[in-house]
Amino acid sequence: MSSPIYEHSPERDVESGYASGSSSEAGLPDVFFSKPHLKFINQQLQKLEPEEILKWCLISLPSLYQTTAFGLTGLVTVDMLSKISGPVQSQVDLIFLDTLYHFSETLSLVDRVRRRYPHLNLHVYKPQGIETTEQFEA
């Protein structure tokens, strides 16, 4: 028996529009890509450089978020996003999951990134009402 997620339905093959980067958020539709549309997009994106892919994402995917653990690839992505200029400015909010088990160096790096990229909106999520690993483990 197949999973409902993978079952074929005619609605999934219908192309749907998506908002442009200049649209206001108030009336943005949900972004939906059919399988044929995703295939086409993937074929086009694989021809682009990483910076161009990020710019496409900013234009095509409103209210985009970037998760990061502040590893090497995450930092490179943050830096590339910060350098996008022109009509498409970096509007990507960052999400960092503070598990309360990060090395102090990682938390220092979070502070350094905040200072270096003050225009980026960083959301830090950790267990509600908990400040230390001891509190979390209790």
From TrEMBL:
Pfam families: PAPS_reduct (PF01507). It comes from the Eukaryota. Residues 65-130 form the Phosphoadenosine phosphosulphate reductase domain. SUPFAM superfamilies: Adenine nucleotide alpha hydrolases-like. Pathway: Sulfur metabolism; hydrogen sulfide biosynthesis; sulfite from sulfate. Gene3D superfamilies: HUPs (3.40.50.620). Residues 1-22 are annotated as: Disordered. Belongs to the PAPS reductase family. CysH subfamily. This is 3'-phosphoadenylsulfate reductase. It comes from Cryomyces antarcticus.
